[in-house]
Every structure is written in structure tokens, then in C-alpha cells.
Write a structure and sequence with these properties.
- The complex is a heterodimer of chains A (about 350) and B (about 170).
- Chain A has about 350 residues and is an alpha+beta fold.
- Chain A contains 11 helices and 9 strands.
- Chain A has 2 domains: about 90 residues, Cupredoxins -  blue copper proteins (Immunoglobulin-like, Sandwich), CATH 2.60.40; about 180 residues, Cytochrome Bc1 Complex, Chain D, domain 2 (Orthogonal Bundle), CATH 1.10.760.10.
- Chain B folds into 2 domains: about 45 residues, no CATH class; about 90 residues, Cupredoxins -  blue copper proteins (Immunoglobulin-like, Sandwich).
- Chain B is about 30% helix and about 30% strand.
- Chain B has a 5-stranded mixed sheet with strand order 3-9-8-5-6, with no helix packed on it.
- In chain B, a hairpin with a 4-residue loop joins β5 and β6.
- In chain B, α1 packs antiparallel against α2.
- The chains are: A alpha+beta (about 350), B alpha+beta (about 170).
- Chains A and B meet through α8 of A and loops of B.
Chain lengths: ~350, ~170
């Protein structure tokens, strides 16, 4: 063999074998080995094609870790919860976003898609188990939610509430002639006799506005029903700080609007895909017969048989309460001035 | 070939009064279907892999307000020629407002990769000629007719050779 022939074989070998092994070797081995901390690559597929891969990861407490999310088919959004406050936002196909973080205590966290990406979007979740290296088999057990436990102790059937008494869309027991205006309610507030227990926010969480309307009707027999409804709307929207409401609105738009509709009409683009028609929060006659703590339980636990997913592993209790407060603003036409 | 000059030649003939009226009518008459610059509200829904409606007609000068929604996954909207781009998430309505000041046919396409047939997710915005254009066409036609009548009237009193030469 001539020397030139040998050189040609070497050149061909470098191109055919050397180049791919250099690229793939860097991607899968050298980059990870050279990284100062553990890097976990997570590919995001639409749930019909498998969801997150991998969909479960284990990290140690105080171990710095970088999560790299790559969208593989359509646009996804990735957020981490509960209580981590990480929202990476949109990831378009072919793009990669990463987050470096360190967990300081054992527990279970969730990474989830918060941009509607297909009929099974809400199944697109993955778990992060943060383990204590000294005791790797011990994970803190999930604590029962005190609000849900109290509801169960009280004998409230969380799932029966959805259709209690009447089907959604039937003639409502509560007649609401005009959209409730909390602003009007604020001006009327001083002229209406309020029973003492109603002033307690904790009491209001466990009673529907329709019940309070009944109480107000007994103590203010001369006041028109529409005025009392405005006062009730004011009572149910007055406790929330505007910035809390803005954060809850963002959370609602990302996680709830695809089914329940951006304005709470129950008419989001995915509303037709669910087993039961999504609830229209903008329907005051319907919502005013609900209790805040039941709404809270529904969000955290999901709705049995309705296709309402559970968000208890994604949101903190505070975020869930803020979402409930935001729901109360949906049927109300004018909010009171922030105090 | 001399004829006696028309006794009416020194004052406007009724035919010119008629032409004046027709010109005025062409300029101010309301045209059916094509009003002046209007606000056009268009609901545009994006799904894999089409826009509904796929073809949008507006008139030049219209204020176009597109209410953009997505029904399955995140889509985008990019309008050629106008360079407008917007991303739309399922559940969140987006509004795009612009003035259709460029006539012609423009393609709008999905601007966020949304699946295998994403490159074929294309629609058309057709900016049609507006009312002033059609009025101008009408005025030109009336002027052309008036020119013919003028030549014909002149030909009655002068020879065609004199009219063409501008003499006589």
C-alpha cells in the first residue's frame, strides 16, 4: 500500500468514526464528566408520546444539580413545585432551558408542564425525590392537608358538591339579575347590618356566599336583593392583595384557562375533551353556592371522575388559596379599590 | 365641407352638465359592499395544522383587529409583508391590531414549531383595492367617454383633419 493510500484511509476513518464519536462522546460523556455539578437532561414530549423522559429523578440533599429541559415536539412550559418558585416559561421545540438548584431538605417535588400541549397535557409531570444520603430509603410521608381533613371530618362530600341539588346550567336557585359589583357593594357596606360571624374571613371560607345572602336578607328586609348580592361580592373579594391576585391570575392562565376559559366561562379550547363540562366560574349563580374550602380541596385533590387534575403536588397551600380568591373575582364585574 | 357653427357652441351644452353630474355621482355614490376604511374584527383560530379561516379579505386602509386563539398546542402568527409576529397559547386570547396599508396578497404562517406539518400551516391575507381606487377608475372612464363625445361634437363643426391638427 502506498503512503498516500494509507493517508487517505486515515482521513476517511477520522471522518466516518472520529467525528461522530467526538460529537456524541462530548454530548453524552465528556460534557457531563467535565461539569462541576450533576447535569440531568430531561426531554419533554407531549404526554401521548411519553411525557417527560425521564419522569422520575433522585437527587441528594445539598447536592447542586442542573436540570436541562429540551422540548422535542411542540412547545411546552416547565415549572417546578411546590414552593420552589421556579417557572422556566416556554420551551419551543429544539430549544433547551436549564435551571441549577440545590435542595436543602428531603422531600418530593414535581416538575410539570404548564402550557397546554395536548389532550393529556395534565398528565405531563415528573417527580424529584430529594433523599438524605445518610438514610436513602426514608422519604418524608405526605402530610394530610388539614383543610381537606376538616372537610372530611365535617362530613362534606367534596365530589358531590359539583352537582349538588341541580345540574350545572339548570335554572339556578339563586337569581342574579345583574353581574355583582364589589365596588357598589363597598359603598353599600356601611348601610347594611352584617351578622358578626360574617366579618370573620375564616368563617367565610367554610360558608357559601348564598348562605350569607340568606342571613343578610333576614337582617336587612328592606334592602333590595341585588344590593345585598353586591355586598356579598364585596365581602368575598376584599381580603386579597392586588399582587397576590396578579400572581394567582398568572397561575390560573397557565394551569386552568385551557379548560375553564380565560374569563371563567368554562369554554377553554380543551373544554370539549373532559369527562364532565368544566365549571364556569363566571356564572355567579353557580359559584355563589360554593364554599372556598371546597374549591380549595377540589384544586388540591382534583375532581373524581370529572377529569379535573390534582394540583396539590404542584402548588403550595398559599398559592391554592390565592387561586380560590382569584376565582371569586371572576363573576364580579367591578372590584373594590385596593385598601 | 363647411357647416354653420352651432348656436350653442358658446355656452355649456346639456351633455356636459350631464357628464358633470355623472362624475359627481361616481365620487360620492355609496358603493355596495365596499365601505370606506372600517375596523375589521377577525377571529382567527390556530390548530394543527391550519388557520381558520384560512383566507381573510380586507380592504386597503382598513383597521384590522385579529383575535387569535389556539385550540391544541402553542402556535404562532407571522404576517409576511407587515412583519407582525405573535405567539398564542391555548386558552389565552391574543389581539393583533394593524392598519392594512399595503395592498396585495400576504401569507400568514405559524411562527412556533407545532408538529410535523408545521411548515404547511399557512393562511392568506388579501388586502383588496379600496373604494377610492374604484372611484378613480370610474372618473377615468367618465373622462374617456367625455373625450369621445367632445371629439364627436367637434367633428360636427370641423373636419376630422382639422380636429386632429388642432387647426380650423
Amino acid at each position: 500500500m502506498e503512503r498516500r493510500e494509507v493517508a487517505a484511509w486515515v482521513a476517511v476513518g477520522l471522518i466516518v468514526i472520529g467525528l461522530p464519536s467526538a460529537v456524541l462522546g462530548y454530548q453524552h460523556w465528556l460534557r457531563l464528566a467535565a461539569a462541576e455539578q450533576r447535569v440531568i437532561d430531561i426531554q419533554a414530549y407531549a404526554p401521548e408520546r411519553g411525557g417527560f423522559a425521564p419522569d422520575a429523578i433522585r437527587v441528594a440533599v445539598n447536592e447542586p444539580v442542573t436540570l436541562r429541559f429540551a422540548a422535542m415536539d411542540v412547545t411546552h412550559g416547565v415549572a417546578l413545585g411546590p414552593g420552589l418558585g421556579v417557572d422556566l416559561g416556554h420551551i419551543d421545540p429544539g430549544k433547551v432551558k436549564e435551571i441549577s438548584l440545590t435542595f436543602d431538605r428531603p422531600g418530593t417535588y414535581t416538575y410539570y408542564c404548564n402550557t397546554w400541549c395536548g389532550p393529556d397535557h395534565w398528565r405531563m409531570r415528573g417527580t424529584i425525590q430529594v433523599i438524605d444520603p445518610a438514610n436513602p430509603d426514608l422519604l418524608p410521608a405526605a402530610q394530610p392537608d388539614p383543610v381537606i381533613a376538616a372537610l372530611i371530618a365535617e362530613g362534606v362530600d367534596i365530589d358531590a358538591q359539583h352537582d349538588a341539588g341541580r345540574k350545572h346550567g339548570d335554572a339556578p336557585a339563586l337569581i342574579i339579575e345583574r353581574p355583582p359589583s364589589a365596588q357598589r357593594g363597598a359603598t353599600l357596606f356601611g348601610s347594611v347590618t352584617i351578622p358578626p360571624e360574617v366579618s370573620d374571613p375564616a368563617w367565610r371560607r367554610s360558608h357559601p356566599p348564598a348562605h350569607v345572602l340568606e342571613l343578610l336578607r333576614q337582617t336587612n328586609r328592606q334592602a333590595p336583593q341585588a344590593d345585598l348580592i353586591d355586598v356579598v361580592a364585596y365581602l368575598w373579594t376584599t381580603d386579597t392583595a392586588p399582587e397576590t391576585l396578579a400572581a394567582a391570575e398568572s397561575l390560573y392562565n397557565k394551569n386552568c384557562a385551557a379548560c375553564h376559559g380565560q374569563t371563567g366561562g368554562g369554554d377553554g379550547p380543551a373544554a370539549g375533551t373532559t369527562a364532565e363540562k368544566p365549571v364556569a366560574f363566571a356564572d355567579a349563580a353557580y359559584l355563589f353556592e360554593r364554599r372556598s374550602d371546597v374549591l380549595y380541596a377540589k384544586i388540591r385533590r382534583g375532581g373524581m371522575g370529572t377529569d379535573m387534575p390534582n394540583f396539590g403536588t404542584l402548588f403550595t397551600p398559599e398559592e391554592t388559596w390565592a387561586l380560590v380568591e382569584y376565582l371569586w373575582t371572576l363573576p364580579v364585574s367591578a372590584l373594590p379599590e385596593p385598601r | 365641407m363647411t357647416r354653420p357653427p352651432s348656436p350653442l357652441s358658446m355656452r355649456p351644452r346639456p351633455i356636459w352638465v350631464l357628464f358633470g353630474l355623472v362624475t359627481f355621482a361616481v365620487l360620492v355614490a355609496p358603493l355596495p359592499g365596499a365601505a370606506g376604511a372600517a375596523t375589521r374584527e377577525i377571529a382567527l383560530d390556530a390548530t394543527q395544522f391550519e388557520f381558520a379561516p384560512g383566507r381573510v379579505h380586507v380592504n386597503r386602509g382598513d383597521r384590522v383587529v385579529i383575535t387569535l386563539t389556539a385550540s391544541d398546542v402553542v402556535h404562532g402568527f407571522y404576517l409576511d409583508g407587515y412583519g407582525l409576529e405573535r405567539r398564542v397559547e391555548p386558552g389565552i386570547t391574543e389581539q393583533i391590531a394593524f392598519t392594512a396599508d399595503k395592498p396585495g396578497k400576504f401569507r400568514f404562517r405559524c411562527a412556533v414549531s407545532c408538529g410535523p406539518l408545521h411548515p404547511f400551516m399557512i393562511g392568506e391575507l388579501i388586502v383588496e383595492r379600496n373604494t377610492p381606487y374604484w372611484r378613480a377608475v370610474g372618473v377615468v372612464l367618465v373622462a374617456a367617454a367625455g373625450m369621445l363625445v367632445h371629439l364627436w361634437q367637434s367633428g360636427k363643426t370641423r373636419s376630422s383633419q382639422e380636429v386632429i391638427n388642432g387647426t380650423g
